[in-house]
């Protein structure tokens, strides 16, 4: 039984459950207060606060976990980053009030007071830059700290920067990029555990890889195949198959990045393509 720690609430909770559903693992809890749920043969979801998941995995209470890389880094526990899940993207930034004259890190002065929910990452960042700092740990509403006079600056997460701007704050520098990750212990307790976790990694990786790809099929003139190869490279080149009574047409299949679809479809049409079909891919294993 692979125990997978999942965020019980917050911005990572719903995308994590959706990812598992797409992988055939239904991790929906029977109620909001449920602490665990079976999510497929051999898998047990354990619901916890996102910030507690690094500890659960490091201590062996869970075999793997999904949480933000910012929280993994703040925990300082020895954990393996097995897969970037490509959601929950954000940045950990240092910011000052709009009215502040500070425009660069070195202008903060000697031992600035910095409020944050990431005291370890904040202290490490200033230490790396040879600066002393007074870290002011705070559990919430970090944006208000400078306006209340308890800090000169803050270190906090932002996705678009809109919330900081709305609270009269200006970014100075990015400490770290973050996104949701699948984490495990550095060394598994047994060979069976390692095999089970590797299978989970492969399953989720196939879903993540497929999300940004589309499967394209088109009937193309035979005499256009040389030019089609430049339009539909696919993973290992486009696949060409015969069409029953197709005459001078053949069927061409390929996997195409989703952000290139407009160009690809237009190019196929210009080469005489007909019956062009685009579908989503549930999993993609190279």
Would you mind describing this structure in some detail?
There is one protein chain. This protein is α/β, with parallel strands linked by helices and 286 residues long. It is built from 8 helices and 15 strands. A 6-stranded mixed beta sheet has the order 2-3-1-4-11-5. The protein starts with a strand and ends in a 6-residue tail after the last strand. The relative contact order is 0.14. The mean pLDDT is 93.
Summarize this entry quickly.
The protein has 286 residues and is an alpha/beta fold. It has helices at residues 13-22, 53-58, 69-75, 119-128, 162-166, 191-211, 225-231, 261-270; strands at 2-7, 36-38, 43-48, 64-68, 79-84, 90-97, 113-116, 134-137, 153-158, 169-178, 180-185, 213-221, 239-242, 249-257, 274-280. It is globular and about 80 Å long.
Properties at a glance:
286 residues; alpha/beta; 6-stranded mixed beta sheet; 5-stranded mixed beta sheet; 8 helices; 15 strands; globular
- Quickly count the helices: 8
SSE pattern, N- to C-terminal: EHEEHEHEEEHEEHEEHEHEEHE
| Rg, Å, rounded | 25 Å
What gross morphology would you assign?
globular
- What class would the helix/strand composition place it in? alpha/beta
- What's the story with the biggest beta sheet? 6 strands, mixed
Strand order of the largest sheet: 2-3-1-4-11-5
**Helix share bin:** 25-40%
What is the average of the pLDDT values?
A: 93
The unreliable regions are none
Total strands: the figure is 15
Ends apart, CA distance between termini: 27 Å
Percentage beta strand: 25-35%
């Amino acid at each position: 039984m692979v125990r997978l720690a999942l965020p019980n609430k917050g911005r990572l909770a719903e995308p994590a459950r959706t990812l598992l559903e797409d992988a055939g693992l239904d991790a929906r809890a029977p109620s909001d207060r449920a602490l665990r749920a079976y999510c497929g043969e051999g898998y047990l979801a354990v619901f916890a606060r996102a910030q507690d998941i690094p500890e659960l995995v490091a201590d062996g209470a869970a075999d793997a976990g999904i949480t933000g890389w910012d929280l993994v880094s703040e925990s300082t526990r020895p954990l393996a980053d097995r897969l970037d899940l490509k959601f929950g993207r954000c940045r950990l930034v240092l910011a000052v009030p709009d009215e502040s004259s500070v425009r660069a890190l070195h202008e903060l002065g000697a031992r600035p007071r910095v409020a944050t929910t990431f005291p370890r990452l904040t202290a490490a960042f200033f230490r790396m830059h040879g600066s002393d700092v007074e870290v002011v740990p705070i559990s919430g509403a970090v944006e208000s700290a400078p306006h209340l006079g308890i800090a000169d600056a803050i270190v906090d997460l932002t996705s678009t920067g809109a919330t900081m701007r709305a609270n009269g704050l200006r970014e100075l520098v990015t400490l770290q990029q973050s996104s949701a990750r699948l984490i495990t212990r550095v060394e598994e307790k047994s060979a069976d555990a390692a095999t089970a976790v590797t299978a989970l990694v492969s399953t989720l990786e196939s879903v993540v890889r497929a999300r940004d790809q589309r499967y394209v099929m088109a009937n193309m003139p035979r005499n256009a195949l040389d030019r089609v190869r430049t339009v539909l490279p696919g993973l290992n080149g486009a696949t060409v198959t015969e069409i029953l009574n197709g005459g001078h047409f053949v069927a061409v299949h390929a996997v195409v990045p989703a952000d290139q679809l407009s160009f690809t479809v237009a190019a196929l049409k210009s080469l005489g393509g007909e019956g062009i079909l685009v579908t989503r891919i549930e999993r993609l294993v190279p």
